Amino acid sequence: MSKLNSVECYPFVDLRKAWAEMEEDMRCITVENGGVVMRWGQRPEYTVDLNRVKNWAQLVDWMLHLSEKRWMTPYRLRLFSEKVISAKKWKRSDA
Fold it and tell me: What is the span of the domain harbouring residue 55?
């Protein structure tokens, strides 16, 4: 069968499961005692002190660092950045 006539199949996504995982991720990242605290599964908590994120460039550095962690996902990275931006009272237009 030619490539033009074939149909690619994608795995079925259980939207309820995906939504539950997203809600769990939202609960697992908090701002406490001047830091963004991430707690996922059996891993030790990971805290980023907000004093170490003084500007947008440092936020990007932290995002690059965290993106190398095996437990980090694009959605979790977004949650992290949103928590920092909110805690710092930055506006996205400040970039």
Answer: 15-94
